[in-house]
Amino acid sequence: MRTLTFLGALVAAISSLMYMLDSHLEKFYVFDPTELHTLSKSAIAAHGNDTRAVVDYIVEHLAKTHPNHVNVEEEWVFNNAGGCMGAMTIIHASITEYLIVFGTAIGTEGHSGRHTADDYFTILKGEQLAWKAGTFEPEIYPQGAQHLMKRGEVKQYAMKEACFALEYARGWIPPMLFFGYADTFTSTLDFYTLWRTTVITGREMLTNLAKMKL
Ligand SMILES: *[C@@H]1O[C@H](CO)[C@@H](O)[C@H](O)[C@H]1NC(C)=O
């Protein structure tokens, strides 16, 4: 009985803490979706479809504007989630934000996942299609467009050919990692990639936490 009372109190304490933090999440953000959209558009204007150069431009610029929160090492790893396969490199990962370049050179299609963060997907190369159950026309996001998927929304999405994007998520990041890992256990069994992803993500999150960046 006492254990139950204690558990009840603990759950209540954690939920009210989460609730309180949730209304103050914005204070922890260091990136801004409009800033990232503008930066992506100037990178495309400068380098067009030379996506290698576009990515360098973005990372170099962010390293100047956010020197304490940007990982300048490119460490590409494959990611399988919701049936989609792509590769990503992590520019920033913390408890409340992540910023990655994600894409595929040959196309992919699947489930977006239902996430605990708002997700801003800015297309650097190619085109992304998406749609929600109950609609009848695709949403089309060409090069330079920013696709916002709000927290809790779910879509089917497709990149029919080569497509790369700057993906920025803000909200609660740790629960999203489970989705990012699920296909490893049910499909790919690529535990080496899982391990590398965990090491890089963990390192970035802890480095940021050490700088008091939630
Ligand atoms: C990139 O290539 C596509 C397809 O060939 C083309 O439609 C688009 O205009 C190109 N973008 C730039 C910025 O050159």
TrEMBL record:
Single GO MF descriptor: isomerase activity
Cellular compartments annotated: Endoplasmic reticulum membrane
Top-level taxonomic group: Eukaryota
Biological or metabolic pathway of the protein: Steroid metabolism; ergosterol biosynthesis
Any Pfam family the entry gives: ERG2_Sigma1R
GO CC, alphabetical: endoplasmic reticulum membrane
Keywords for the protein's UniProt record, in alphabetical order: Endoplasmic reticulum, Isomerase, Membrane, Signal, Transmembrane, Transmembrane helix
Keyword field contains Protein transport: no
GO biological process, alphabetically ordered: ergosterol biosynthetic process
Calcium listed as a keyword: no
Primary site of residence: endoplasmic reticulum
EC number: 5.-.-.-
Matching InterPro entries: ERG2_sigma1_rcpt-like
Group of enzyme by EC: isomerase
Signal sequence segment: 1-16
UniProt-listed PANTHER family: SIGMA 1-TYPE OPIOID RECEPTOR-RELATED (PTHR10868), SIGMA NON-OPIOID INTRACELLULAR RECEPTOR 1 (PTHR10868:SF1)
Protein family per UniProt: Belongs to the ERG2 family.
The protein, known as: C-8 sterol isomerase
Organism of this sequence: Paraphaeosphaeria sporulosa
